[in-house]
Structures are given as C-alpha cells and as structure tokens.
Amino acid sequence: MADKKVTVTWAKGANVRPAPNINNAAIRTLAVGTVITTPYAETTDANGDRWIRITTSPAEFIATFYGGTVRATVEIVGEPPAEKTTVEFTMDNPVEVVVNKIKVWPQA
C-alpha cells in the first residue's frame, strides 16, 4: 500500500478526531499547511464526507472533505512511475488496453 501525503488546506486548519465522525470531540487542530504522511486510505462516511486516518496508535482522523468543502488534499507518494505504453488503433479496429489495472479504450 502506497503512502499518502496529506496537506491541510482549510484556512482554519483541520480538527483531529478519535474517529471519522464530526460528532467526536476534536483532540487538537492542525494548522493550514501542515503535511502528514500516512499509509491509510481515505474513507467516506454516510454523509459523503471523506476522512483519513493520520496516526496508528492512538487512532486519529481528519476530514479531507466536509460540508462540501475540501479541507485537505491527499496525494499518493512512493509509487514507482507507470511504464509508458503506446498503442496504435483505429476506430475500425478498436483495441482495449489495460494499464495499471485501468481499462482504456477509444472514444467515438
């Protein structure tokens, strides 16, 4: 699993909570511009808000998207660059290609 670089972008910072739920009291606040590296993936709650775990023990989370606003950006880091693949095709002879588990095919 690749690490994620999380950068707090919300001007008021990001509240750190013990679980991915706004109803949990904030433990502390990370200032705008704070950068954290975490192995965990983002999760989405029932309200469509996104959270990411930033520590292992104790578990701490911040909202990356809450209330319709991006609160922090998440970038995958440490992945090797994808190999360059060139495929030639025509609309008369379309070819489906799978690159890094993503299917790519020609659009009409």
List the keywords.
108 residues; single chain; SH3 type barrels; three-stranded antiparallel beta sheet
Layout: helices, strands, pairs:
Blueprint: E1 3-8, E2 14-16, E3 28-30, E4 35-38, E5 42-44, E6 50-55, E7 60-66, E8 69-70, E9 72-77, E10 97-99, E11 102-104
Antiparallel strand pairs: 1-4, 1-9, 2-3, 5-6, 6-7, 7-8, 10-11
Give the structure's gist in a few sentences:
The chain has 108 residues and is mainly beta. The chain has strands spanning 3-8, 14-16, 28-30, 35-38, 42-44, 50-55, 60-66, 69-70, 72-77, 97-99, 102-104.
How does this structure look, described?
The protein has 108 residues and is mostly beta strands. Helix content is 0%, strand content 43%. It has a domain at 3-77: SH3 type barrels (Roll), CATH 2.30.30. The protein has no helices and 11 strands. Strand 7 (60-66) and strand 8 (69-70) form a beta hairpin.
What is the CATH topology of the domain at 3-77?
A: SH3 type barrels
| Major sheet | 4 strands, antiparallel
Question: What fraction strand?
Answer: 35-45%
Q: Which radius of gyration do the C-alpha atoms yield?
A: 19 Å
Q: Summarize model confidence as the mean pLDDT.
A: 83
SSE pattern, N- to C-terminal:
EEEEEEEEEEE
CA-based shape: globular
Largest sheet, spatial ordering of strands? 5-6-7-8
Amino- and carboxy-terminal Cα gap: 36 Å
